[in-house]
Write a structure and sequence with these properties.
Blueprint (H helix, E strand, L loop, with lengths): L12 E3 L5 E3 L1 H8 L12 H12 L7 H5 L4 H19 L3 H11 L6 H15 L6 H8 L8 E3 L2 E3 L35
Antiparallel strand pairs: 1-2, 3-4
Helix pairs in contact: 5-6
Length: 191
Amino acid sequence: MREFWVASGHHLTRRADHGGLVATPELIMAYLARPELMPPADACEAERNLHASLLADPLRPVAKADIAALADADARENWTFMMNFRDRLAAAPSLEAVYTTLARNGAGDLPPIFLSQLCHLILRNALEGCDDPYTLRAAELFYRSQQATVHDGTLLWPMRKSSRRSSTPGTTCIRRRWRPCCSRRRSARWT
């Protein structure tokens, strides 16, 4: 059977004895490689040190003071989101348990991208062994943004692939944020 949804990060998790997925240091390291967390050239030393220390030990404790020491407000927000998410993943018996808790109790200020990624991972695990392309495509409706259209009387539901860029002419966006913001110096709209 052909591997599917490699981008889900399924290969970076571990299946527990109960059948659920457990986050691994490798999964956390994949998040650390995201542009929202990669220190830009003008990042302060505290941000570069935090990032480097987490690459060396992705599950090491991070104090609120470590994040408060970051000079950039966007960076502090991104790291707060990531450490809260990472700590939820590490404390739960499975990724499915994290998702269930978020669904029952609300996600609070957790950016929606984390929920989509959890859903992607959970579905990939649930569909292990599936080789029906229609089932796999239907499952994508749960975690991908969709835009339906009617063409010649047929409903088409293609995957939406878009790239949002800053709408301000002359603005260069270096840092992405987990959610849209108004700062133009180091941020881009999250899609």
